[in-house]
Design goal:
This protein has 335 residues and is an alpha/beta fold. The protein has a single domain (37-53, 112-331), classed as Ribokinase (UDP-N-acetylmuramoyl-L-alanine:D-glutamate ligase, 3-Layer(aba) Sandwich). Helix content is 35%, strand content 25%. It has 13 helices and 17 strands. The chain has helices at 35-45, 60-71, 126-134, 142-147, 149-159, 176-179, 186-191, 201-208, 213-219, 260-273, 278-293, 305-312, 316-321; strands at 3-7, 11-16, 28-33, 49-57, 74-75, 79-82, 89-93, 105-109, 137-141, 167-171, 196-200, 225-230, 234-239, 244-248, 251-252, 322-325, 328-331. Strands 1, 4, 5, 6, 9, 10, 11, 12, 13 and 14 form a 10-stranded mixed beta sheet that branches. A 4-stranded mixed beta sheet has the order 3-2-7-8. Strands 15-16-17 form a 3-stranded mixed beta sheet. A hairpin with a 2-residue loop joins β16 (322-325) and β17. The longest helix has 16 residues, at 278-293. Bound molecules: adenosine-5'-diphosphate and 2-keto 3 deoxy 6 phospho gluconate. 2-keto 3 deoxy 6 phospho gluconate binds next to α1 and α10. Its EC number is 2.7.1.45. InterPro entries: PfkB_Carbo_kinase, PfkB_dom, Ribokinase-like.
Length: 335
């Protein structure tokens, strides 16, 4: 079976149970959060043999993360348990009435974490090198580049390795808080070493200074495919051969946006591994993202196989009439 390997940090995630200022919170929900492991769980849910390469601390947070990944069918033989450094942690602070933008924010406690100490030496772990060698897809993200110089050199080593039939995907995953005072131009260099690049329009503005499709392609000429996501509007794939595909996003009653980008990546990349065309890949991305948008938390369950196939095979008119609410895909009347 085709296998996928996702590489990156996953943290313990604490979220105040009630939307109050953090210092007034009395209960915190304990979950798990990490972009690349979200993609790994998404790919496993699509039926692919999937593995996660990372490092966690020898602590309860690390154990919880390993269990979560295993429970979702993701292999963890490529995860090292660091005996001295801790598992990274982050706190999701909900939107406050006092915040004029109404947005939620994130506090990271990941500097000096076990995963941020990953580097080129991670590749000399025989379990890791075997996984990467046998992978049809290796998925990376720009988050790793910002974690430490060692993590950046790990990305560079993977991205410059001979492909031998493998595809390397790179989600830009802009994280403002991680890039303060750092040279963001490395993201363009890394993206140009990848085969498939995914970026949101909002992220592109921060990472590359433009949201213009042609300018972005000009800045990233090397990847075979550049996928540009435009939230509720559409997602576009630009092939190096010059072909362009645009698929409108689904109508979704959004509960919480976190994790939608990772789910989109899992949907798109699963379609690629199944040998589907660009339109089908983009549709899979939208469907997986919609499932996550309608739940709290980083991932929502997919429809069963028969319903998924019907949604993916629907005509453009039916696709345009689909509305997703509470994880249910309904076709609005009139289509
Ligand atoms: N409001 C929305 N309505 C419908 N789909 C959405 C909406 N927001 C996001 N999506 C879906 O989620 C995908 C990823 O969105 P994006 O904003 O790029 O995520 P992230 O910022 O988490 O990376 C989009 O391509 C689309 O499929
Ligand atoms: O911020 C980080 O470093 C994380 O990895 C934690 C988050 O759970 C995912 O990144 C969600 O990602 P989106 O799909 O882009 O919403």
């Amino acid at each position: 079976m085709l296998s996928a390997v996702c590489v990156g940090e996953t943290m313990a995630m604490l979220t105040p149970v009630h939307a109050v200022p953090l210092h007034l919170a009395t209960e915190l929900h304990f979950g798990v959060g990490g972009a690349e492991s979200n993609v790994a769980m998404g790919l496993a849910a699509m039926g692919l043999d999937t593995h996660w390469v990372s490092r966690v601390g020898h602590d309860g947070f690390g154990t919880r993360i390993l269990h979560e990944l295993q429970d979702h069918g993701v292999g963890v033989s490529g995860v090292e348990v660091d005996q001295s450094l801790p598992t990274g942690l982050y706190v999701k602070v909900p939107a406050q009435e006092s915040d004029p933008d109404g947005g939620s924010s994130v506090l990271y406690y990941r500097q000096g974490s076990a995963a941020s100490a990953m580097g080129r030496d991670t590749l000399s772990n025989p379990a890791v090198s075997a996984l990467l060698e046998n992978a049809a897809l290796i998925h990376l993200s720009g988050i790793t580049a910002a974690l430490s110089p060692e993590c950046l050199s790990l990305l560079e080593a993977i991205l410059t390795s001979p492909r031998n039939g493998r595809t390397i995907s790179f989600d830009v995953n802009w994280r403002e808080a991680l890039w303060a005072g750092q040279d963001r131009s490395v993201l363009q260099r890394l993206a140009n070493l990848a085969d498939v690049v995914l970026v949101g329009k909002d992220e592109a503005e921060h990472a590359f200074g433009t949201t213009d499709e042609a300018e972005l392609r000009h800045m990233m000429p090397d990847p075979k495919v550049l996928v540009i996501k435009n939230e509720a509007i559409s997602a576009i794939s630009l092939d190096r051969s010059g072909s362009r595909e645009e698929v409108p996003a689904l109508s979704v009653a959004v509960v919480e946006p976190v994790g939608a980008g990772d789910s989109f990546a899992a949907g798109y990349l699963s379609g690629m591994l199944f040998g589907l065309g660009q339109k089908e890949r983009l549709r899979r991305g939208h469907v997986a993202a919609a499932c996550t948008l309608t739940v709290h938390g980083d991932r929502g369950p997919l429809p069963d196989a028969a319903e998924l196939a019907a949604i993916l095979d629907s005509s453009d008119d039916v696709w345009a009439a689909i509305h997703v609410e509470d994880g249910q895909f309904n076709t609005r009347t009139g289509a």
